[in-house]
Amino acid sequence: YNDNKLDDFQLLDCTIRDGGYTNNWSFTDEFVIDLYNTISSCNYNYFEIGFRNSLQCEGKGKYYNISDKDIEYIYNKSKNRCKISIMVTIGRFKLSDFKQKEDTKIDLIRILIHRENKSYNIQEAKKCAINLIEKGYDVCINLGNSEQLSIEEVSNIDHYFQDTDIKCIYLADTFGSINECDITKLKIMFKYNKLGFHGHN
């Protein structure tokens, strides 16, 4: 969001993608279609239909590694259609898994980066973002465990992505410890990119 204006807010529902942690992403198509219709009729901007993690997906349902064919099926069976988002995780997908944007129903790809050894692999994330943008997708960077970020780190990451056309940088409050004052401080540090927020509290 930007400047606290309601028109600048965009809403993304991630019930299927994030909720999949409770059932190994084994939703029925009927449930997903019903939810997609509901979310779209409520004027959400994006419906995040799942992950595309072509690596490390053994034992997971199809919404953990959702195919273009399955996405198109859900899209065609739905009466109301907001834009479709998916999430990928650095180290668990291949860029070759993605067609050109005009050949799929996917609008937005959110790239999740886990915080490991007190840092993020932002170099790999930037490389992937540029490639996917060149294929025609909107792209967001999603920083997991962002409650551990310092103000300086936020500023540096914002600056690092300033020369890309990413849609925004998401801060994911993985452990639910970010409060309103923290958000305000972090928001001030964003000079080049818009801020997305995924709260758990």
Overview of the molecule:
With 201 residues, the protein is an alpha/beta fold. The chain has helices at 15-19, 29-41, 68-77, 122-134, 151-160, 180-188; strands at 12-13, 46-51, 83-89, 106-113, 138-143, 168-172, 195-198. The chain is globular.
Features:
201 residues; alpha/beta; 6 helices; 7 strands
Mean pLDDT: 89
Instruction: Determine the strand fraction and express it as a percent band.
Output: 15-25%
Our Rg estimate from Cα atoms comes to 16 Å
Structural class: alpha/beta
**Distance between the first and last residues' Cα:** 19 Å
| Largest sheet features | 7 strands, parallel
State the low-pLDDT regions, or none.
Answer: none
Helix content: 25-40%
Overall body shape: globular
| Tally of DSSP helical segments | 6
Order of helices and strands: EHHEHEEHEHEHE
Strand order of the largest sheet: 1-2-3-4-5-6-7
Total beta strand runs: 7
Task: List the SSEs and their pairings.
Blueprint: E1 12-13, H1 15-19, H2 29-41, E2 46-51, H3 68-77, E3 83-89, E4 106-113, H4 122-134, E5 138-143, H5 151-160, E6 168-172, H6 180-188, E7 195-198
